[in-house]
Amino acid sequence: MKTTGYALGDIASRFDLELRGDAQILIHGVATLANAGPGEIGFLSNPRYRSQLGETRATAVILRADDASAYANACLIAHDPYVGFARVGSLFERTPAPVVGVHASAVIAAGATIADSASIGPFCVVEADAHVGDGAIIGAHCIVGPRCRVGAQSRLIARVTLVQDVAIGRRVLVHPGAVIGADGFGLAFEKDHWIKVPQLGGVVIGDDCEIGANTTIDRGALGDTVLGDDVRLDNQIQIAHNVTIGSHTAMAGCSAVAGSTTIGQYCMIGGSAGILGHLTIADRVTVHAMSLVTHSIREPGEYTSGTPIQPNRQWRRNAARFKHLDAIARRVDAIEKEKK
Amino acid sequence: MKTTGYALGDIASRFDLELRGDAQILIHGVATLANAGPGEIGFLSNPRYRSQLGETRATAVILRADDASAYANACLIAHDPYVGFARVGSLFERTPAPVVGVHASAVIAAGATIADSASIGPFCVVEADAHVGDGAIIGAHCIVGPRCRVGAQSRLIARVTLVQDVAIGRRVLVHPGAVIGADGFGLAFEKDHWIKVPQLGGVVIGDDCEIGANTTIDRGALGDTVLGDDVRLDNQIQIAHNVTIGSHTAMAGCSAVAGSTTIGQYCMIGGSAGILGHLTIADRVTVHAMSLVTHSIREPGEYTSGTPIQPNRQWRRNAARFKHLDAIARRVDAIEKEKK
Amino acid sequence: MKTTGYALGDIASRFDLELRGDAQILIHGVATLANAGPGEIGFLSNPRYRSQLGETRATAVILRADDASAYANACLIAHDPYVGFARVGSLFERTPAPVVGVHASAVIAAGATIADSASIGPFCVVEADAHVGDGAIIGAHCIVGPRCRVGAQSRLIARVTLVQDVAIGRRVLVHPGAVIGADGFGLAFEKDHWIKVPQLGGVVIGDDCEIGANTTIDRGALGDTVLGDDVRLDNQIQIAHNVTIGSHTAMAGCSAVAGSTTIGQYCMIGGSAGILGHLTIADRVTVHAMSLVTHSIREPGEYTSGTPIQPNRQWRRNAARFKHLDAIARRVDAIEKEKK
């Protein structure tokens, strides 16, 4: 992660951090306190790592004012060092800047509109009535389907499929393999077989969202599937048709939401968690990993299902008893009753 | 969802529904009762929404004969209004009709055969001894691997990978990112390392199936992985090698079936549910969301595992007790024994 | 699975197996004992199938010396017949050998280096500073991003995305839809919104690994996500940033590992299992299907969470009691106390 480097003083002023030490020091990269070497800047956010401050070989450290007093070398004082690190680290990203314009191999339908400042990579397909906004970057192998809109400064890294009727806001980042706007799973049972319920809606995604690799977001059956602003989805998440996710909600990998559920703002959904359909989840609800939400949640707070992991032999004995838990409880009832 | 519209009488006769009201009324789209506006047709299937009948602005409604008596405006009488809606809604799909023929950019191997009435989109690869049937639609970026067959009128929306030895029936719909026919996960442990067990079989998919986005169906190790007719798979489902799924079975998103398991007909597998390998599941079994099937199920019915979701503080106390549930049960045994 | 065939004696000597019977017998394919027909070789590994030995129509069988005494026809004696079958079966793979060289449609960046003996398929994109090693096979529609390296004899079947800074060892097999090297899910919360934590690391994958279809492996935030040698990942697995997986560990479909967790060597992770972040899992740990690991595991052995599946009516009664399990346990405490 070496670059030509940035002067520590320039970093401080660019991100509005307080500098202690020599403004001329050159910083070539970022690293953890434990792994940082000369020319790199580390950060101390989690107090658990405070002891590493004495031993780090980092040339500078981003830390809280409290911790700075115990640190003799160059540092940048941040109210939240993790946020500070996120800002400073962005200087050292090595994702190549794409070439503006449409790659010669791309297939662009008549009627698609592409901003002059946008970039369309190799083997992209942009279909009829699609629109790619100012400064948007459509990486290699993306499909921008009929009537899809990609907002200004958004980036589809590569191999993203916008199937149809998908509207993506500004500064949205979508990772490879994501499929947005495929048909929802709508079936009607007629006598002895299924018939497909047509999926006629779209997907609307706000500004500043991030969509992980191989995540799927289906379009609505009637009306749209909707993500607010600043919604953050990790990899391999499944969002069914007509789900609504409030702004600033974050979902971890492999979680899934069934059809027509509404999730509030500032929720945190754990990895591999599931939320059944047609529910309402309040703002600021946290669902723990691999928990299954089977009813609406009206109060903010943390929610969990499942059982703790145990060595298999112990688990087997306990699990066998779970199968008769109601009977056990009735026996306790009976014992108590007998006493009275 | 506006089109030039269909006369209500024409809709009635096309789908064999009973018309009440003016046959000349033009219908431009479908919508829910709550959201419908002028020119749109709504439907009343779930009795829970019956109260919306009085307030809907829909121009017409699809409903049961029972409900029609309470409704003064134009309507179509259906035995099952949801099925009726599915049929009528299909008139308003806006997925563009693909161009018949092979896109200039597609790479077609010598020895592949493609029906004249089929459509092959941009950047498709059709490999040796593959066959694409009459009226089949292979969307952009699909791969039809060696010895794969796509039946008449089937559609691979876009970016579908048929790896090798995959036979797909007629009128099958496959959504983007699906990977069908990849190697199953076969390993043999030799002393201190794994060796790969060759996967030599294929995948056979019947007629009228639907396969969701980013779903994976592995080919058999020896013999084939088999889906019957009218099997409906949602997104991000994993079907391992040599699984057999009976006709008319539907599986919700993120569910998974391990190798060599046989699932019956008319089963319903909930979202994120799992079924271990080498099991047999009877016809008409319903497995609830996020349940894990660890043994064969011989009787139709509904099956569930897991625990209910609770506020985390309550859950923690209960979960801690689960770790000692066998001991608690033994204590109840002892109390009862002492009494006798 | 018919080929021109191999003489049984040649198979025996090629794989160092003991031959009993006529060395000239021609073998055209492999099959299970139950399904084998003339010209095919079967195998007996699991004692459960020993009774099939008498009825199989296989022309020859791979089996243990113990079982050979009870079998009159041609056979190959193997210490481990399943390993023997894996070896012999590889003769009958029908995956076409790819053409060496770069397909005319591929887009190769200046500065990418591709071995003369490598194969690059249609519509591949190989970006700047990428390297494809000797005999490596990059199937159709793959993306080899900036600074990615594919080791000698490795194979990306098709439609694999190496996003950036991914180093893949030798003889690694990657199935379609896998996304390796996408950004990890790193977020810092600032006042009322998320900001993205830059992901600056890469992914390092050892030799002889296998990565399943639609599996995702994110690149590290700082430092790398690391897989040792002979790591075997099934389909739809999620490996978050900065995870380390020890050599010879195998993970079944849909399992997931959160950020910065270290998994030991020779572990077996069951299907749909989850492992939280920042944990350490010892060598030779087995985690059962759909279990959630919430704390570090220091001892080898088998670990499980969850409850057994039951008919829904029974489950409901037991699950309702789980919600009050702590209270039930307290009542048992009270009863015992009262007695003393």
Task: Explain how this protein is built.
In chain A, 57% of the residues are buried. Chain A is of the alpha/beta class. In chain A, a hairpin with a 2-residue loop joins β22 and β23. Chain A is flat, with a radius of gyration of 26 Å. Chain A starts with 5 loop residues before the first strand and ends with a helix. Helices cover 14% and strands 29% of the residues of chain A. Chain A has 3 domains: 6-92, Udp-n-acetylmuramoylalanyl-d-glutamate--2,6- Diaminopimelate Ligase, Chain: A, domain 1, CATH 3.40.1390; 101-303, UDP N-Acetylglucosamine Acyltransferase, domain 1 (3 Solenoid); 312-340. Chains in contact: A-B, A-C, B-C.
Give the largest interface pair and sizes.
A-B, 80 and 75 residues
Shape designation of chain A: flat
Tell me what portion of residues of chain A adopts beta-strand conformation: 25-35%
| Most strands sheet of chain A | 11 strands, parallel
| CATH-defined topology of the largest domain in chain A | UDP N-Acetylglucosamine Acyltransferase, domain 1
Number of helices of chain A: 5
Q: Kindly, what is the distance between the CA atoms of the first and last residues of chain A, rounded to a whole number of angstroms?
A: 74 Å
| Shape-level CATH architecture of the largest domain in chain A | 3 Solenoid
**Alpha-beta content class of chain A:** alpha/beta
The CATH homologous superfamily of the largest domain in chain A is called: Hexapeptide repeat proteins
The CATH class name of the largest domain in chain A reads Mainly Beta
Radius of gyration of chain A, taken over Cα atoms and rounded to an integer in Å = 26 Å
Low-confidence stretches of chain A: none
Q: What is the mean predicted local confidence, pLDDT of chain A? A: 96
Residues in helix, % of chain A? 10-25%
Strand neighbour order, sheet with most strands of chain A: 8-11-14-17-20-25-28-31-34-37-39
